[in-house]
């Protein structure tokens, strides 16, 4: 099956800061999406906190719920990028709300019996002034895998400053070299996986996988 000519990436920024407020999460997510854009990926992103995402685990929680439109952008993309700050060693409450709403994919299948989320790769960016980046990645990626997304290797970009320090990622004079190389690696891997999945979707429900014989 032929995949799309253009790969799209959709970023969901789970900062607690709304509007145009400066956000370290927004900066790192923007840098990651810009790197994908250099390889021809179409990119878009939102700040989830600016939208009225109702609590719940269905695709549409009724009047005023902003999630159905956001969900449409998730489904229209081949790459989903989640960005979250660390609070109390955890993903932000906004990030957890997004994961809860993605839970609806567990009850939705396509014409072949696959979860609607199948065939989409994910990446994650994390910022904070405390430890917890690996824990946050574990929580978010476990949730995303549960609801049908595919995780490439080395697809977490994180920056953590000094514990209880006052310097945020957005306050740095320049991007640290290690962040730049990690963004490059994660972007290459997630794009490679997205292209593979676009060309070769998971097998229909009830059918075994077919492997190419060299």
From TrEMBL:
Any one Pfam family match given in the protein's UniProt record, by short name: FMN_red
NADPH-dependent FMN reductase-like domain: residues covered: 12-157
Key words of the record: Plasmid
InterPro entries xref list: Flavoprotein-like_sf, FMN_Rdtase-like_dom
Transmembrane as UniProt keyword: no
UniProt-recorded Gene Ontology molecular function terms: oxidoreductase activity
Superkingdom: Bacteria
Name of protein: NADPH-dependent FMN reductase
Native organism: Tistrella mobilis (strain KA081020-065)
